Amino acid sequence: MDVFEDAAPAALVGRCAAAITDPIRSFEATLAFLELGAACLGDAGRLFWADHPDWNLELEVVLRALGDRGLVLERVEEALHRYPLEERMFPDLEGKAAALGVDARWLRELVASVSGWTHLYVLGASPER
């Protein structure tokens, strides 16, 4: 299914107590995933969205756009999940090291020693929805 073009499956629309998404980090993609999840929620359903402002530079813009999509931010569970960073998460590490003027081996060791963190944003339907 293409979240940019396809509607939520009719069998799921309005029937779910919860939807969980960990979308691509961009304004359009995040909103597309959130809109799909929201379409599946029942009246008291909650949408759980994994993201972090360090990874999604458009997160604040997404948060401001929630109301226009019938969603309200209920709470944020900060640093709920920690995960190891892996070199494959950073394509062209050699090129990045060269651009930064640092040794590629040092950059690999840094990536291996640092963790990423994810917040969990809990969304519900706005009263107007």
Give average pLDDT, whole number: 93
SSE ordering: EHEHEHHE
CATH topology term of one domain = Rossmann fold
How many β-strand stretches? 4
Please state the overall shape, judged from the principal axes of the Cα atoms: elongated
Structural class: alpha+beta
- CATH class category of one domain: Alpha Beta
**Main beta sheet: strand number and arrangement?**
4 strands, mixed
What oligomeric assembly is this protein in?
Answer: single chain
**Helical residues, percent:** 25-40%
What this model shows, in words?
- With about 130 residues, the chain is of the alpha+beta class.
- It has a domain at about 15-85 and about 115-125: Rossmann fold (3-Layer(aba) Sandwich).
- The protein is built from 4 helices and 4 strands.
- Helix 1 (about 25-40) links the parallel strand 1 (about 15-20) and strand 2 (about 40-50).
- The chain starts with 15 loop residues before the first strand and ends with a strand.
